[in-house]
Amino acid sequence: MKPTIKDVAKLANVSISTVSRVMNAPETVVETKKLRVLDAIERLKYKPNALARGLIYKKTNTLGVVIPDIRNPYYADIIRGMEDASKMLGYNLIICNTDRDRARLFSYLNNFYEKQVDGILYTSDPVYPDYYKALQRLQMPVVLVSTHSMEYRLPSVKINDEQAAYDAVKYLIDSGHTSIGMIGFHLSDSIAGLPRYEGFARALREHDLDDSKDNVVFVNGWSYDTPDAAAQLIARFPSVTAVFTSSDELAIGLIAYLHEQGIRVPEQISVMGFDNIRWGNLSIPKLTTVAQPTYEIGFRSVMKLNAIIKEQDDSELREYLPHTIIERASAKILKSFSSP
Questions:
Q1: Does one domain contain both 38 and 92?
Q2: Which residues form the HTH lacI-type domain (predicted)?
Q3: Least CB-packed of 138, 237, 271, 313 within 10 Å?
Q4: Which domain holds residue 248?
Q5: 10-24, 154-168, 190-204, 287-301: which has the minimum mean pLDDT?
Q6: Four-residue CA torsion sign, 275, 279, 281, 284
Q7: Domain count, the chain
Q8: Is residue 329 domain-resident?
Q9: 269 and 167, same structural domain?
Q10: Residue 13 CA to chain centroid, in angstroms?
Q11: Residue 74 sits in a domain of what CATH number?
Q12: 317: in domain
């Protein structure tokens, strides 16, 4: 049987808390006791258990991460940013894939409680009332990653989705397009659905192109039914010269569908994506898109959570990082940006 901290304390004739202080804050222990504990550790070949140490100090140096779909390439750089920040700060990550299943999410939250993680990084999905109650019951710090909540005072890190969609559609308008379509997530999605449609509609309204605001097809949840959505869009709105999509996966699916139909991109239809996943730089043509700073979102989320754990100042509750437009080959400029 492996020796325990109790065995060390017994052999050294000290308390368990003294053994813990020798391992974690040796300067606080008198020299004679410290030498007895170190001798007992050596004789027993004791290796401290991280979980047991965490239970004593109420800190396990572990963060729990919930991801809705680990297969989605959007999350790759977010997780990398989380990992780099965690390593720098001395944390380990437990990453759990929920598949947007309520029961799985609640099961993972219970696991986080049992493992006494120091905080939770909740990624992408809306925070429904029952989710919020479950998070509150855990009494653990939480940071929302690439999502936010206007109903609850939960700290978050993301981009401004409405403004990013506005800028994407304005780019198409400034390029000379006056008949613009959209493939987006359903408006019931308060994170990537409604705000991105609102940005699309605002850009059209401000440039007197309200006639295009209904040129929209919504995909069913997150199932990415791109071929069906693309077919519907082209059949219902054949005059569109540009399409804004709510994700790069939708954009790449649209480009593939248009190629199969013999419709040239960008010569006949320009395509604008959203996210800037790596696949966008590999599609033919390469994808013009809104770039989210995904690595920075992941990194900053861990820094924010660490500040909360350590009760440090972090005054910005809902933090928005900047987005950029990445110009590649899938969107054609019909006129010069300098044209009146």
A1: no
A2: 3-57
A3: 313
A4: 161-291
A5: 10-24
A6: negative
A7: 3
A8: no
A9: yes
A10: 50
A11: 3.40.50.2300
A12: no
Do 86 and 50 share a domain, yes or no? no
Residue 319 lies in a domain: no
Burial of 219 (0-12, 13-18, 19+ CB in 10 A): buried
SS3 content of the chain, % helix, strand, coil (to 5): 45, 15, 40
The pLDDT tens digits of the residues spanning 277-327 come to 999 999 999 999 999 999 999 999 999 999 999 988 877 899 999 999 999
Q: List Cβ neighbours of 333 (8 Å cut-off, separation of 6 or more).
A: 175, 176
68 and 111 together in one domain: yes
Torsional class of 294: left (φ above 0), alpha (ψ -120 to 50), beta (otherwise): alpha
- Examine the domain organization and report whether 226 and 135 are in the same domain: no
Query: What is the four-CA torsion angle of 185, 190, 195, 196, rounded to 10 degrees?
Result: -20
pLDDT in tens, 66-122: 999 998 899 999 999 999 999 999 999 999 999 999 999 999 999 999 888 999 999
Q: Which helix (H) or strand (E) holds 86?
A: helix 74-89
CATH number at residue 12: 1.10.260.40
Other Cβ atoms within 10 Å of 65 Cβ, number: 27
Most confident of the ranges 46-55, 67-76, 262-271: 262-271
Question: Within this chain, do residues 29 and 96 fall inside the same structural domain, yes or no?
Answer: no
> Exposed (0-12), middle (13-18) or buried (19+): which is 260, by Cβ within 10 Å?
exposed
CA 158/CA 145 separation, integer angstroms: 6
Which residues, other chains included, contact 35 with Cβ-Cβ below 8 Å and sequence gap of 6+? none
pLDDT confidence bin for 57, thresholds 50/70/90: low
| Residue 150, domain member (yes or no) | yes
**Residue with structure tokens 């909740």?**
122
Structure tokens belonging to residue 2: 């492996």
Higher pLDDT, 227 or 278: 278
